[in-house]
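My main concern about presentation is that the manuscript never shows what a single data entry looks like. An entry of this sort, consisting of the sequence and the corresponding backbone structure tokens, reads as follows:
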Amino acid sequence: MKLNRLKEVFDERGVKNRTLAAVLNKSESTISLWRNNKRQSSLEEFYIIAKLLC
């Protein structure tokens, strides 16, 4: 069971950490932590990510 599919979805859609970091005004390392399920984004940030991926 996968609890965090961000890595899969980012890979499927070709989303780069650098791009998302620029949009959210976060560091690439923060995005990497989210992507690798080491940390979670806030609900507001997650909502923005979801809108970008639609």
